[in-house]
Design goal:
This protein has about 290 residues and is an alpha/beta fold. It folds into two domains: about 70 residues, Medium-chain alcohol dehydrogenases, catalytic domain (Quinone Oxidoreductase, Chain A, domain 1); about 150 residues, 3-Layer(aba) Sandwich (Rossmann fold). About 30% of the residues lie in helices and about 20% in strands. It is built from ten helices and eleven strands. A six-stranded parallel beta sheet has the order 6-5-4-7-8-9, sandwiched between helices. A three-stranded antiparallel beta sheet has the order 1-2-3, with no helix packed on it. Helix 7 links the parallel strand 7 and strand 8. The chain is globular, with a radius of gyration of 19 Å.
Length: about 290
């Protein structure tokens, strides 16, 4: 798995996880089969998730790479790196716990064609909400509509804050109740502009700023957070691991019933991992970006 959070670990600064060291293997989610084991809890053939990262094979104690044996559910193995894995739990915890989603809410989702955003769109529709998604380009916008979104904004056509605000007001004349943020930048500023009083913002990621070299400019309308009494809360998925049993039960039900669809963009070979990672920041993926090793 390649994920945007990895970019933050390439800066030498304090964060919720330590930075990568020069020459260190890139850490990240991986799914594989056990080929041999001396551990009583694991046997050859077991399906295992880990944080082993960008490598074709590894030998380690399970706890050293946060290994976990996975159930044989009939889902594609790759689903445990996406909709049934960390991105799916991120969407689930963010929209249900952080944003406190309620039936009938009007929900705006940025990065709506990505692994997290596309899951948020579908959870919100399952909960009978009106959903506005933002994505880049006609193909991705069509994907978001196919997932059930009521309105889709092509941010490449909107061209910045003013265009996003105009598109949001056209889609939601009464404003939005929830914003699930994967992007930051103009999307966050526009969401503040059209938010209804007491709206809730789940701040999941700000990919628009991950590669900033200068000082990022914050929302110019931040004062509205006070007047509108907005709740804006960032979150890290590992804090909400207690939700995993309910998450897996709901996902199994939703995927089985056809209410939850998922897309993947897969590159072949470990040598393609850097290209796959960089593609996250240029919008090269629809759904979860993955690298298949064998």
């Amino acid at each position: 798995s390649v994920d945007p959070y990895m970019r933050g670990r390439m800066y030498d600064r304090e964060s919720y996880v330590p930075p990568f060291q020069i020459g260190e293997t890139m850490q990240g989610g991986a799914i594989g089969r056990v080929t041999a084991s001396n551990h009583p809890g694991y046997g050859a053939g077991d399906l295992v998730s880990s944080m082993a990262g960008w490598r074709t094979a590894w030998t380690a104690k399970p706890e050293a790479v946060m290994a976990m044996k996975l159930p044989e559910t009939g889902l594609p193995e790759s689903a445990f790196l996406g909709v049934a894995g960390m991105p799916g739990l991120t969407a689930y915890a963010g929209i249900l716990r952080i944003a406190e989603l309620k039936e009938g809410d009007t929900v705006f989702v940025s990065g709506a064609a990505g692994a997290v955003g596309s899951t948020v769109v579908q959870i919100a529709k399952i909960k009978n909400c009106t959903v506005i998604g933002s994505a880049g380009g006609p193909e991705k916008c069509a994907t978001v509509m196919a997932l059930g979104a009521d309105h889709v904004i092509d941010y490449k056509q909107a061209r910045g804050f003013d265009g996003l605000v105009a598109a949001l007001r056209a889609a939601a004349p009464k404003g939005i109740d929830v914003y699930f943020d994967n992007v930051g930048g103009d999307h966050l500023t526009a969401a503040i502009e059209v938010a209804r009083p007491m709206a809730r913002f789940a701040e999941c990621g700000m990919i628009a700023q991950y590669n900033e070299t200068g000082t990022p400019v914050g929302p110019h309308n931040i004062i509205q957070v006070v007047g509108k009494q907005l709740k804006i809360q960032g979150f890290i998925v590992s804090t909400h691991i207690d939700m995993q049993p309910a998450f897996l039960a709901d996902m199994a039900k939703w995927i089985g019933s056809g209410q939850m669809q998922f897309n993947e963009t897969v590159m072949e070979g470990i040598d393609k991992a850097p290209d796959a990672f960089l593609g996250l920041f240029s919008g090269a993926n629809t759904g979860k970006m993955l690298v298949k090793l064998g």
